[in-house]
Amino acid sequence: MKKRKLSLILVLIFCQLLVVSCKKVEKPQEELDEKPVIYLYPQEVMDVWVKLDYSGELLCSYPVYDYGWQVTAHPGGKLINKADAEEYSYLFWEGRSEIGYDMSRGFVVKGEDTADFLREKLSFLGLEPREYNEFIVYWLPRMQESPYNLIAFQGENYTQKAKLEISPRPDSLLRVFMAYRPLKEPISIEQQELEAFERWGFSVIEWGGGLVK
User: Fold this and answer.
1) Which residues share a beta bridge with 208?
2) Whose C-alpha in 18, 20, 69, 182 is 20 to 30 A from the C-alpha of 60?
3) pLDDT tens digits, residue range 57-87?
4) What is the pLDDT of residues 106-163, one digit of tens each?
5) Which residues have CB under 8 Å from 28's CB, separation 6+?
6) Which strands make up the sheet holding 46-54, listed edge to edge?
7) Nearest-10 crossing angle of helices 114-125, 129-143
8) N- to C-terminal Cα distance for the chain?
9) What is the pLDDT of residue 20?
10) For residues 70 and 62, what is the distance between their CA atoms, to the nearest angstrom?
11) CB-based contacts of 6: which residues, under 8 Å, 6+ apart?
12) Phi, psi values for residue 121, rounded to 5°
């Protein structure tokens, strides 16, 4: 009986490892690219392959990243992962790299105003309510207690270190990555100019963020 229970426990552990793969971070010296999540919105049900070319150490993924993700994507965003036949809302990864964020332009925002600021800017950038609300509930608890935050949305310095290869190729691709630094006092900085995004055809949407120490 005990052997049977032990065997069952081992099987459950093995199944869990197939679903999520994460490494424990003891004392990270580099900046973390936290919770980039990738939504796939095809116009019809289709098989999609996603590969991440990351200039850093991949720490966590869900479902497990095994030289890429292979999924069946549905127009509403539902994903069926081919490796385990389970349903997912998006593809998640997290990593650590030595490439710094560009904080030369951005926005200085009071901690108490974080939610309103993010809702406004993320909506303008092209995230829909489901997406920007998931973004906000992840980052808000970390940011609202700081007196101020310097917030800068990243461009090629992020996308070039975390390249995505997607097949079939999407018609429109939006990658929103926010870097922020907690501040005790407001500072003077050039305001960042943001560009609006229009979805069309097969759309791929990604959001993530990182803390700058």
Assistant:
1) 177
2) 182
3) 999 999 999 999 999 999 999 999 999 999 9
4) 999 999 999 999 999 999 999 999 999 999 999 999 999 999 999 999 999 999 999 9
5) 96
6) 87-88, 79-81, 69-73, 46-54, 162-167
7) 150
8) 53
9) 55
10) 12
11) none
12) -75, -40
> Which one-letter DSSP state was computed for residue 66?
S
Cα–Cα distance for residue pair 7/178, rounded to 1 Å: 44
HEC states along 87-117?
EECCEEEEEEECCCCCCCEEEEEEHHHHHHH
Q: Tell me the residue length of the chain.
A: 213
Alpha-carbon distance of 53 to 91, in angstroms, equals 15
**C-alpha torsion 89→90→94→98, nearest 10:** -160
* Longest pairwise C-alpha distance within the chain: 68
Name the residue among 124, 154, 147, 127 with its Cα closest to residue 138: 127
1, pLDDT greater than 60:
no
Residue located via tokens 């509930």? 137
- Enumerate residues 6+ apart whose C-beta is below 8 A from 178: 139, 151, 152, 153, 154, 207, 208, 209, 210
- CA atoms of 101 and 141, how far apart (whole Å): 21
Q: Are 89 and 78 in contact (CB under 8 A)?
A: yes
Handedness of CA 177, 163, 89, 98 (dihedral sign): negative
Give me Rg for the CA atoms of the chain.
19
Three-state DSSP class for residue 194:
coil
